[in-house]
Design a protein that fits this description.
The chain is α+β, with helices and mostly antiparallel strands and about 110 residues long. The protein contains 4 helices and 4 strands, in the order H-H-E-H-E-E-E-H. It has one domain.
């Protein structure tokens, strides 16, 4: 796990998305939480197997003033200013275990 620690920390320092893959229970989530605590950053830990597409994107509501829909984001998405002044690291757990339409909805947040 030491190699994974170095790789993840380097990716975070370079602002590069990273994918950790491995069997359940080997410490992927714990590693992310450990590194974020060391860097005084929050983690937005999303368990995709428990979410639906509207959970990620929000719900469209009509805005009659501009004749367009506005998206009302879910409460778990961070506000502009977060506890430490930075947005949290977004950890998408079980990314490959869900339907393609949900993982496609995650890609804008990854890239």
């Amino acid at each position: 796990m030491l190699d994974a620690y170095k790789i993840v920390k380097n990716s975070i320092n370079n602002n590069t998305p990273i994918m950790l893959w491995g069997p359940p229970g080997i410490g992927k989530s714990s590693l992310i939480h450990q590194i974020s605590a060391e860097m005084n950053r929050e983690v937005l830990d999303l368990r995709l197997a428990q979410l639906e597409p509207t959970d990620l994107r929000g719900v469209p509501m009509p805005n009659n003033e501009i004749n367009r829909a506005q998206w009302y984001l879910p409460a778990f998405w961070p506000a502009v200013s977060c506890r430490y002044g930075y947005p949290p690291y977004t950890f998408l757990s079980k990314y490959w275990n869900k339907y393609p339409f949900l993982t496609a909805g995650c890609r804008p947040n990854i890239l």
